[in-house]
Amino acid sequence: MSEVDELPRFPFPADAALEPPAEWAQLRSKCPVAHVKLASGDVAALLTRHEDVRNVLSDPRFTRPTPGDDAARIADSEGGGIYNSDMAEVIPQHGEAHLTWRRGIGKWFTAKRMNALRPGIAVMAEQLIDEMVAKGAPADLKASLGFPLPVWVICDMLGVPDTDRDRFSHWSDTMLSMTRYSAAEMKAAEQEFWRYMAAHIAAKREQPGDDLLSALITDPEPMSDRTLIATGIGLLIAGHETTANMITKMVAMLLSDRSRWEQLLADPSLVRTAVEESLRLDANLGVGLARYLTEEIEIGGVVLPAGTTAMCGMAAANRDEDAFERASEMDLSRSPNPHLAFGAGAHACLGQPLARTELQVVLEVLLRRLPSLDLAVDVEDLRRVEGLVVGGLVELPVRW
After folding, report:
1. Which residues are within 8 A (CB) of 175 and not within 5 positions of it... i.e. 6 or more apart?
2. Which family is this sequence assigned to (predicted)?
3. pLDDT (tens digit per residue) in 85-109
């Protein structure tokens, strides 16, 4: 057996849907920079301490692996998935070009714009809850609310029809695959998504609307078509997949110990800090963020050579006792809360203001409309989504 075969396989399996793998705490205390084997069979360095993860994510020398780097592959397929897609190559990852790209999109995620979106998100949440209640309990909160709400929001922002949401979901899942889909399926999904978005952008050129993609098209310094297409795909994937999963996981965490739900009912002003604590305590965030080390660096007392792929375990870092008092406990009033759920540095999640807005509004509406909400199954029966780079629950059965 080779040394690679003996390395622990990452991501680690977890016994319970809402609990972390035991390896996280073990590695943080004894081996905060650990070599692991990814789903592809390639080797990476896994970081699990808050300070190390934050420092690497914030270091401008290191960025997301690009197709030109000799980086470890996340997925077990050659030439497929989001990390090997044209999208990863087209969107600038370094320097001024990356900052310019972020500025162009970031104008759509300001606090002012998010506050303007809140009433519409609340109305949509109410409508989806009405439909769920009309069908009766038990219901799957993920299918009824967690998935359709963020899809509707991001589709509205991009000016694409949310009636195509099942196609977006399939393409997203396939491109986010580690082990669930073959290389051929991953490539086919990327090509279909690319053709769809190219046609959508061509239509927007002919008839611009009041949406993000139309604004990018008509900008005095417009992006190339390839960058526009890649941006549209990236925003659609990020704008619905991660938030849909997080809505579901947040509600599951709050209902898994119903005293938390009762605490929020008694004091709804805790919604904002409860959302942040749910983000911090999410044990099912996914594989984390990869960074390609372009030069030698010492991390946690370990020297990593240039060419190393570092996997930044944000979820593991978010439970670091050196960064958070009583880190394994859910404190709905925790403040400050410097969690790393959205990453850090130049590549921190662009859409985090939108994700926070959606999570807060959904929680506010659920508390108001369904104060008796509860899990319809035992916590032990909740199941994780397997084989994708993002983490989520298969479903969330609830009653009221």
Report:
1. 81, 82, 85, 186, 189, 190, 193, 237
2. Belongs to the cytochrome P450 family.
3. 556 668 877 778 888 888 888 888 9
- The half-sphere exposure of 384 on its side-chain side, counting CA atoms within 13 A, is 22
Tokens at residue 181, please?
């889909």
Q: Are 142 and 249 in contact (CB under 8 A)?
A: no
Amino acid at the residue 210: D
Look up residue 380 and give its amino acid: E
CA 349 to chain centre: 8
How many Å apart are CA 20 and CA 37, to the nearest integer? Answer: 19
* Diameter over CA atoms, the chain: 61
Pairwise CA distance, residues 64 & 260, whole Å: 37
C-beta separation of 149 from 126 below 8 A: no
Write 162-171 long-range contacts (CB < 8 A, 24+): 164/196, 165/240, 167/192, 167/196, 168/193, 168/236, 168/237, 168/240, 169/240, 169/241, 171/196, 171/237
Q: How much is the pTM?
A: 0.93
Query: Using an 8 Å Cβ cutoff, are 374 and 138 in contact?
Result: no
Residue pair 342/227 in contact by the 8 Å Cβ criterion: no
The residue among 102, 100, 113 whose CA lies nearest residue 221 is: 100
- Does the structure show a pLDDT above 80 at 347? yes
CATH architecture of 3-387: Orthogonal Bundle (1.10)
Domain boundaries, the chain: 3-387
Q: Residues 71-80: pLDDT tens digits?
A: 898 876 544 4
* Amino acid letter for position 219: D
